[in-house]
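To the wet lab folks,

You asked to see what we're planning to order before we commit. Fair enough. Below is the target structure as tokens, and below that is the sequence we designed to fit it. If anything looks off to you, flag it before the synthesis order goes out.
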């Protein structure tokens, strides 16, 4: 099967995002750049979690705000998509919001589990993946209207950094149970 030009573009964006995610998570586990290995209280872990949730939450707020602002100034969209047929601009903003919300749900669960269950020396992964989430959202927002290849890197950076954390978390916890 030969891939289309769009599929190749998406694949390149996904591969780059996966590589960046692997490098960042690996380096944070091995180097503990924020020196979190000294954390010994749950309250300190929860502080790392709270700080790390700020950027993803900001992007959800921005997504909601962009759509609300657009609807306010659009006579066709002011009543909302439940009561009208949305314009193409409103549909795009709704799609960005929906995708960000979906990503946030995964992110909140994974970041929380990581902060509660993983070794303190591995906690640096959470704030750095939060930064990857933000960078990913910026690329996703900017590239969305240009099609799949233009938004692939942003989507994948947001998604893969969280999914890789989840996989490491599950594998680590299985190893703990087995040993």
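Sequence we intend to order:
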């Amino acid at each position: 099967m030969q891939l289309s030009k769009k599929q190749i573009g998406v694949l390149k964006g996904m591969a780059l995002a996966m590589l960046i995610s692997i490098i960042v998570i690996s380096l944070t586990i091995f180097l503990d750049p924020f020196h979190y290995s000294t954390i010994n209280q749950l309250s300190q872990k929860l502080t790392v979690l709270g700080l790390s949730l700020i950027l993803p939450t900001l992007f959800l707020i921005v997504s909601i705000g962009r759509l609300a602002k657009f609807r306010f100034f659009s006579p066709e969209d002011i009543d909302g998509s439940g009561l009208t047929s949305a314009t193409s601009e409103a549909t795009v903003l709704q799609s960005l919001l929906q995708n960000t919300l979906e990503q946030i749900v995964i992110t909140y669960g994974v970041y929380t589990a990581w902060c509660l269950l993983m070794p303190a020396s591995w906690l640096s992964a959470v704030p750095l993946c939060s930064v990857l989430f933000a960078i990913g959202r910026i690329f996703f927002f900017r590239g969305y209207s240009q099609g799949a290849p233009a938004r692939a890197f942003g989507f994948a950076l947001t998604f893969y950094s969280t999914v890789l954390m989840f996989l490491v978390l599950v594998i680590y916890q299985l190893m703990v149970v087995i040993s």
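Structural context that might help your review: Helices lie at 5-31, 42-52, 54-73, 88-117, 125-143, 148-178. The chain has six helices and no strands.

Thanks,
Computational group
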